Amino acid sequence: MKVIIVGGGIGGLAAAVAFHQRGWRVEVLERAPAFTEIGAGLSIQPNGLRALDQLGLGDALRSGGLADPLAGIRRANGSWLIRNDVDDLKRRFGQWVTVHRAALVDLLRTALPEEALRPGSQVRDVRPDGTVHHSGGTTAADLVVGADGVHSVTRRSLWPDVPGPRYVGYTTWRLIVPPHPVEGSVETWGRGQRFGHVPMPEGSVYCYLMANAPLNSRTGLEQLRTRFAGWHGPIPALLDSARPDAVLQHDTYELPKLRAYFAGKVALLGDAAHAMTPNLGQGACQALEDAVTLAATVDALGVGAGLAEYDRTRRPRTQLIAHRSRQVGAPAHWAWPPLTALRDAALPRLPSAFFERSITPAYTWTP
Predict the structure, then answer these.
(1) Residue 349 lies inside a defined structural domain of this protein
(2) DSSP run (H or E) holding 11
(3) CA atoms within 13 Å, Cβ hemisphere of 278
(4) Domain FAD-binding, which positions (predicted)?
(5) Is 91 exposed, middle or buried (0-12, 13-18, 19+ CB in 10 A)?
(6) DSSP-assigned states of every residue in 215-280
């Protein structure tokens, strides 16, 4: 049996590893000239680690250094809006790991035979019968997996009439700065903008910033330093230590709900199927879950029944997580002062069970 994976990111490579370990012939078509990831830090939460455990790779990430979940959310002046019991979260759900995106891609890539990797392959069209037209010619397989991201060629090929990605109204900057003392993983909310910092195992700090902005607007590091200059420490110091060439900016998209994650012999996974806002940090984790579930169901049940089972189990879950992520992040981007004042007064008074309802479905997944 042969599977073609369209897209060599985290989800695509994880699917390739899962099928390879089951004895399938694997071909990964990646449009970039090399298999790498241009990105910053990444938090792999307990459910993502359990998915990696299915590939025998979870301990390799854990050995690089464990991390803590989000300690809480502050106001721009430093006062707490939400404070999490970090030890209780780890006790109930499991471990977190923070890693550079490129390191995770490399871990997955090295678990595959070199001949399975096809960099520099631009996919032009995917057919329901398992035929893929790309820059190197035409290839066919028993199964095709579209793991080619939010602007998926695979999805457009098979569902040309389905609405495309929707810009959610805010843009995101990501960067890694030199070592700096920080109080764990913390997010800070202002009016229509926020800042988060996450310590990396080797001492550097992963920072992410989000702000309401028109689509395709671009903001440089100096403007970001000015924008966040009055916020509590260590936010200004973190931005002061950043290099301009280390800042990545991407507009934030999500997908409307799809009615199916497969057609014929083709399945979608990760952002190609359910691109979501980053508010729960679940994008990569859901792609990892997709990958191991898809390989397990198709290998056990055959392509037709396996794809139906994959869709039955994965689509409701991922669409729920996407909905929760949208809900959780919305208050951070309120910009009207009376509304943000109400938010800042109400959040500290809400019971912890209110927040647990948002996170529990994500963390409690098991293969």
Answers:
(1) no
(2) helix 10-21
(3) 23
(4) 2-323
(5) exposed
(6) TT----HHHHHHHTTTSPTTHHHHHHT--GGG-EEEEEEEPPPPS-SEETTEEE-THHHH---GGG
Give the rounded percent of residues in the chain with a pLDDT score beyond 70.
100
What pairing do the DSSP bridges indicate for beta strands 262-263 and 266-268?
antiparallel
Q: How far apart are the first and last CA of the chain?
A: 23
pLDDT recorded at residue 188: 98
* DSSP type of residue 47: H
Token pair for 262: 């497969």
Instruction: Quote the DSSP letter at residue 94.
Output: -
Distance CA 141, CA 266 (A): 10
Instruction: Please report, for residues 10, 171, 241, 363, the alpha-carbon distance to residue 193 in angstroms, rounded to integers and kept in the order given.
Output: 28, 9, 20, 26
Q: At 18, which CATH number?
A: 3.50.50.60
Note the pLDDT tens digit of each residue in 106-120: 999 999 999 999 999
pLDDT at position 344 over 90: yes
Position 226 in a domain? no
Residue 151 lies in a domain: yes
Name the CA radius of gyration of the chain, rounded. Answer: 20
Q: Do the domain assignments include residue 16?
A: yes
Going by C-alpha positions, the residue among 272, 267, 283, 366 that lies closest to residue 321 is 283
The rounded distance, in Å, linking the Cα atoms of 175 and 205 is 8
d(CA 83, CA 183): 12
Rounded to two decimals, the pTM is: 0.96
Q: How far is CA 86 from CA 7, 58, 71, 185, in A?
A: 35, 21, 6, 10
Domain count of the fold of the chain? 1
**Cβ(130)–Cβ(142) under 8 Å?**
yes
- Roughly what angle, to the nearest 10 degrees, separates helices 46-54 and 283-301? 30
Residue 166 tokens, joined: 């929707």
